Amino acid sequence: MASQVLRLPFILRGTEGHVDVTVEPNSDPHFWGMHLLFSNVPMSYFLGYPVCQATISYHKQGYAAVCGWIQLVKSTDGKAPNEYEMDIAPVYRGLQTPFIYLGYKPELFDAPGRLERNENDWMAQSFLCYMEDAAMTRNVKPVCAFQWGFDSTMEGISLKKIEALPLKAWDAHIPLLQEKYTEWNFHGSSRSS
């Protein structure tokens, strides 16, 4: 499957912006840095799995452009098959932050893979979020969202179509977010932007 692209328009703090999402098959795991994560694994294990990048275009600067990405994943080979789980970078585990990326117009990057080829249905829901006061309090609201993923079998990997998600998809995840991150407040989609 060729590269897929999606543009997600949004309004943040009264100003329009957009996110450009690209999902493509991983044809060069070394280029994407997989060897840095898995130095003792043949890079061929990651061929064909998706590489996702989501880049923010927004003309506000500084603190007005502070936001973050929260990503949840469900996978038939996960801890709780077919239930969404938090997708957190290993370096953030134990830090009580729901964000996989947080900062000034942060780019979302993810390149999932498996060390064993098996039947797997993997889906991510990625939410661009913000805090009204830039990062002074832990009150999180969604801005826009999309989903993407892959199916794998013994025969190969197929990428799922990127799809824009309605903001109300966020609301279904609030109980999990509140349970995992008790020091944070997650506001429903009706209170966004």
Describe the structure.
This protein starts with a strand and ends in a 7-residue tail after the last strand. The strands form two sheets. Strands 4, 5, 6, 8, 9, 10, 11 and 12 form an eight-stranded mixed beta sheet that branches. The protein has a four-stranded antiparallel beta sheet with strand order 1-2-3-7, with no helix packed on it. It has helices at residues 34-37, 168-171, 174-180; strands at residues 4-12, 15-25, 50-58, 66-75, 85-86, 101-104, 108-110, 120-130, 139-152, 157-159, 163-165, 185-186. The protein is 8% helix and 42% strand. It is mostly beta strands and 193 residues long.
Structural Rg:
17 Å
Unreliable runs: none
- Structural class comes to mainly beta
Major sheet characteristics? 8 strands, mixed
The number of helices is 3
C-alpha geometry: globular
Number of strands: 12
Q: Which percent band covers the strand fraction? A: 35-45%
Mean pLDDT: 93
How far the N terminus sits from the C terminus, by CA atoms, comes to 35 Å
In short:
With 193 residues, the protein is mainly beta.
Q: What is the element layout, followed by pairings?
A:
Blueprint (H helix, E strand, L loop, with lengths): L3 E9 L2 E11 L8 H4 L12 E9 L7 E10 L9 E2 L14 E4 L3 E3 L9 E11 L8 E14 L4 E3 L3 E3 L2 H4 L2 H7 L4 E2 L7
Parallel strand pairs: 9-12
Antiparallel strand pairs: 1-2, 2-3, 3-7, 4-5, 4-6, 4-8, 8-9, 9-10, 9-11
